[in-house]
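Journal club prep — side note

Before the paper discussion, L.F. wants everyone to see what a predicted structure for a comparable chain looks like in token form. Sequence:
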Amino acid sequence: MKLKIAIPSKGRISDPAVKILEKAGLGLKDATNRKLFSSTYNKDIDVMFARAADIPEFIDEGICDMGITGLDLIKEAESDVKILNDLKFGKTKLVLASPEDSEINSINDLKDGMTVATEFPHLTEEYLKENNLDIKIVKLTGSTEIAPFIGIADAITDLTSTGTTLSMNHLKVVEVILESSIKLIANHDSYKEKKNLIDAVSTSIQGVLEAERKKLVLMNVSKEKLTDVQKVMPAMSGPTISEVLSEDETMAIQAVVDEEEVFELVNDLRNAGARDILVVPIERIIQ
């Protein structure tokens, strides 16, 4: 039986979701057409395109075995799913916001009888109940930012990444309700029945995440310079050293380093006696 993975058909997390599957070795054969289903280059795995907001429910109900979607949408749908990986992109916050000139500067300034507009009624209701507030909630499906200015609500709850959109609409962040990012999730029953395949997908994707902003540095070093080079060489678990068949007792060294260290490191390695230095991108790191 095939494994089905649901990913967003459009929106800010659609392309990153496709790219991370491709890097994990699960390239989509029909990615350009964006049909409902696409086979992958693994004969046992198919991908289904869906609305990001529908994916938590699809996974919960077993329509698909795995999915990629936001934590905010999982929590809003109250879906019972297994979170496998934090994919470390699409970071955002669900915030309570009010007009810049309003007197609502904290949760304590909300009063019973006020109104909050949102696309996230469940999360908003939970948040208000936790603060013992009897606030009317108006559900909107878009343009939430305009609600306070047309008399629909006193405040809103909405997603923001940088706060720029809120600021452009003359709104200020009052409280952070939830911090969210994109998750790889699985159906609980599917995880039991297809554990090996689901674990293989999860491990491969985690390997892609581990490899981000990492480089493989390779070089040759004479034995007499080996100690000097080792002193300046960072590595995940120590550099790998092997002997090269040559007349001058050359050693080959390789190590995985952070991308931001590469510029200074290469110069330090040359000064320490390394030569033939190569810096190579890494696709995946499986630990």
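L.F.'s comment for the group: The CA atoms of residues 80 and 137 lie 24 Å apart. Keep this in mind when we get to the figures.
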